[in-house]
Amino acid sequence: MHEVQAVVVRAKNEPATVETILVPDPGPGEALVDVLTCGVCQTDHHYQVGAVGDDFPYLLGHEATGVVSAVGEGVTEVAPGDRVILNWRAVCGQCRACRKGQPWYCFNTHNATQKMTLLDGTELSPALGIGAFAEKTLVAAGQCTKIEGDLEEHQYAAVGLLGCGVMAGIGAVLNTGAVQRGESVAVIGCGGVGTAAVAGAQLAGATTIIAVDLDEDKLATARSFGATHTVNSREQDPVEAIQELTGGFGADVVIDAVGIAATFRQAFEARDLAGRLVLVGVPAPGTTWEIPLDQVFGRGGAIKSAWYGDTLPSRDLPMLVDQYRLGRLDLDGFVSERIGLGDVEPAFEKMKAGKVLRSVVEITDSRAASAAAARTEAAR
């Protein structure tokens, strides 16, 4: 059993605080990981406010990289010393989606069987089955995607973002939207996921990439990631603007990275005939939309939702790390700031205010600080 520092939310709407938790040694099929970095994602805040469930206390954090320190019986895919990206889609290989050859939809993804706990034995619910705002975490071995080749230490903060938000946006374009070279793409909402969709559209070879947002700073950031045109929807009707920029027809693919009824309707209407609409923004529970069914039929095409960008981690994460190494994907640009474990709560406020793409916790610094504090205490 390992005593480590971690970020916990004990009850709905309570602040995220650093506490000492207990992490077991790995059992069969499990891996113990020394966490290096972990991004602060909107999903972690959803856990804090009870929007995901009420299985408090939660151990937050999931967009992470780390080093495998130990593995349990039967684990062959990773070994101690491997540097990995953690993911929450550890495919089971047996469910109806996997058996149909669609493992990116796996309906029974694996998590660690053993529970991490508070010092008093209270079981923790790890965010997305990971819980990586911690010096160590316990996961199913399939949640570890090995990083082949070397990266510089500062680069792990960037590639860790492929564990959730950045991958969701890129995957919505490459996988769900299946954008082809020469197509037009419009992205509505340019937070972290939307900006990643812009980057994905550039990577896919789209020649017209239209970023839509209410905030000029976010639009400027989207342009730096590959947007060829920007639309401030406070000043212009986004549907009309997208149509004007695409010869009057609408975009081949429109990504709704917001997930409210108004943006969904805009995305539906801004498509070309037979165009694809991809919903990657997570709607609030109970959100509804109303579109005449004859328009659904008349416009043709497809309306899809992207679950984690329809990502298969074993296939997609190594490919995107390679694109990063080759300079074709600017993952570094998503890292707005590097912080410690004790800075997660202020990072939520910056995220909600739209001041950052991603704050990234660097656990190595926190671990070193903990060790220094322990040495000081022992010296006394």
UniProtKB/TrEMBL annotation:
Keywords: Metal-binding, Oxidoreductase, Zinc. GO terms for molecular function: mycothiol-dependent formaldehyde dehydrogenase activity; zinc ion binding. Its EC number is 1.1.1.306. InterPro entries: ADH-like_C (IPR013149), ADH-like_N (IPR013154), ADH_Zn_CS (IPR002328), ER (IPR020843), GroES-like_sf (IPR011032), MycoS_dep_FDH (IPR017816), NAD(P)-bd_dom_sf (IPR036291). Its cofactor is Zn(2+). Pfam families: ADH_N, ADH_zinc_N. Residues 16-361 form the Enoyl reductase (ER) domain. This is S-(Hydroxymethyl)mycothiol dehydrogenase. The lineage of its organism: Bacteria, Bacillati, Actinomycetota, Actinomycetes, Micrococcales. Belongs to the zinc-containing alcohol dehydrogenase family. It is an enzyme of class 1 (oxidoreductase).
